[in-house]
Design brief:
single chain, Alpha-Beta Plaits, six-stranded parallel sheet, 10 strands
């Protein structure tokens, strides 16, 4: 008996209340059927009456007629009514509490194969918006220690408040079953400090899940090698990229705006690397250009012996082991 009592109190409050309501209403239904079998022909009719009475609905389709039956009804009203009301109030309160905990990043994520974003900033927000714009169905988990509440109403984003270098936070985000992790640099810190934080987060994620593919942003070029040593699979040097755009803007002499052009291209298409098909070996590169153009892909470069060249011309002959660099439509 003690085992069952202990097991009962180990259940969540919501489950305990539901079980108590079901047991009590079933008990009253059995009792009223036993006392007045003519008024309540079946046990189910008694249970139906108990629920209707206990919930204070009172349809009146089943009514006790004897004194003992009315006494049972009084007892049910005094006990069952309060219990059902308490159950509904608890259910409502737990729903509101769960929604509040979700907003405050206190709920563990139970999914798998999700994108894990570390750090909330404008880059992260735009990335999430792009994924939503292209109607990609990937689940996303955001880890951030600066926000007290996540006000974005995004059903595909699960917020976890905490430090990504702490094991407890990574467990709440289920980082061990994530597909890809994206770590962005904190714009509120100095560049050196922001890069050091990124490297610490890479080390923590790799320690938690050695096979996790990590994309990390660094602000200074000298920290790129440290980010790679820490375990980042791809290191994005955002300052270098922006400096290149500034350079092109300074020296452009035509109406084409490099920033807007690249922004439009990168939000609609993606880079892709593909082995040269066997049927193309020994053929000029023009054949590959025509072939992939039918698939709405543009060949923009070729990799031979590990060296990439964007200088394509008709005299290039495709060889076994070559890789083609393509610009293809963004995946759906």
């Amino acid at each position: 008996m003690q085992h069952w009592i202990r097991l009962y109190f180990q259940l969540p409050l919501f489950v305990r209340l539901l079980a108590t309501v079901l047991i009590m209403m079933s008990l009253f239904g059995f009792i009223i059927h036993s006392i007045e079998p003519n008024s309540f022909p079946t046990v189910f009719d008694g249970i139906w009456w108990a629920f209707v009475t206990g919930a204070t609905v009172g349809y009146g389709d089943y009514v006790p007629l004897s004194a003992w039956g009315k006494a049972v009804a009084i007892l049910l009203i005094m006990t069952g009514g309060g219990l059902v009301t308490f159950y509904m109030a608890t259910l409502s309160a737990s729903t509101v509490k769960h929604e509040q905990d979700l907003t405050e990043g206190k709920v563990d994520f139970k999914g798998r194969d999700h994108f894990l974003f570390v750090g909330w900033n404008e880059r992260t927000r735009q990335l999430i918006d792009m994924i939503g714009t292209h109607e990609l169905e990937d689940k996303m988990v955001l880890i951030d220690r600066t926000m007290n509440r996540f006000y974005q109403r995004l059903s595909s984003v699960h917020f976890v408040k905490g430090d990504a270098t702490e094991e407890e936070t990574l467990q709440k985000a289920n980082a061990g079953h994530a597909k890809v992790a994206v770590i962005t640099a904190d714009p509120d810190k100095r560049e050196e400090q922001a890069d050091q934080n990124v490297i610490h987060q890479i080390v923590a994620l790799k320690g938690h899940q050695p096979e996790l593919f990590i994309i990390a942003e660094v602000l200074t070029d000298k920290q790129r090698i440290n980010a790679e040593r820490a375990g980042a699979n791809t290191v994005i040097r955002s300052n270098d990229f922006m400096s290149s755009l500034f350079y092109h803007e300074l020296y452009r002499n035509d109406p084409v705006q490099p920033f807007e052009l690249l922004l439009d291209l990168l939000t609609a298409r993606q880079f892709h690397e593909e082995k040269v098909p066997e049927s193309f070996v020994g053929e000029p590169v023009l054949k590959a250009l025509e072939h992939f153009l039918h698939d709405r892909c543009q060949v923009i470069g070729i990799k031979k012996n590990g060296k990439i060249s964007f200088d394509l011309h008709a005299d290039i002959i495709l060889e076994e082991g070559d890789d083609l660099l393509l610009f293809s439509p963004l995946r759906k």
